[in-house]
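Hi U.,

Before I forget, here's the chain from the pilot set. I'm dumping it here mostly so it's searchable later in email.
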Amino acid sequence: MLLLVAAMTAQAQTETCSQTFSRLQLALTIGQVTDALADQDLPDARERLNEAADRLPCMDEVVDRTLYAKFARYMAMAFYFADDVAAAKRWGVSSRLADPELSWDEEQYPPGHPLRAMIRDTEVPAMESADGQGLAPPRGGGVFMSGSLLQTPEAPTGIPGLIQVFDVDQRPVDGWWQEGSLFPADVLTPRPKPIEAPWWWKGDGPTSALARPKLDVTQPHEGTGQGGRRIRKTRDRPVPVAPIAGTGALLVTSGVTYLLADNAARSLPDQTSAEALASTRTRANLLVLASGLSLAGAIGVGVGGVVFQGNGVTIRF
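Structure:
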């Protein structure tokens, strides 16, 4: 059946996510849909869109608004080519609300293209809200719709959106597809006060986890662990400088290559030709592979810090 996500309204996901879905995976899926549409392979594009729609509620981070806008526009295209103009308009509005400045492929969709005009000219419905109620995210967390923080349970009438709930530590709690403001009862409260943004939300995306304020932690007493267990003292051993330095260097390399891959993935929606898209996607894949190899190397060097000594095995770090 075409695009089952259209039937998902006002209810949370009933299935437990067995696998998470990342921003990079979404970007790569969008690239595959772009290729399928360029080849006029609409069935393949629909299949990939359906798969992404199933997995988007399982994202492990707040969805990027530009990537979501690209996905929603492709949903509008799929419905348009299936002669469901009403659904195409709803998804077109969802795309515009997420990223009003999303560019078009001028060669494939020139300014006078009817699909482009339909998405541009469709009127945004009025906002509706859960009367007299407010949002109830986890303490210190947040509720997001299509990549934007919600402070009140308001949304345009009948427009599909991806709802995500995260806790204080930026961990996903729940996710589902929804139309309008039909929020489930477990994220609503009788107190209509607008909620504050989580500490990790900077306004247009999450901050690094490293930026979280440090908490005061009571230090354990000398000779005991945090739980009060005695720690048997051993004689001092030399610090393994070389393994530590090697592990650190590999971890830094892994982190840098992952950030480069992430940046490449973020740029995928901005590509306007199939050739540029394929090149960017290949670069992102290679950088992810390099990051994984560096991480594996770091683990290998760390394990090398385990040395055998006269009385047994000593873990050096």
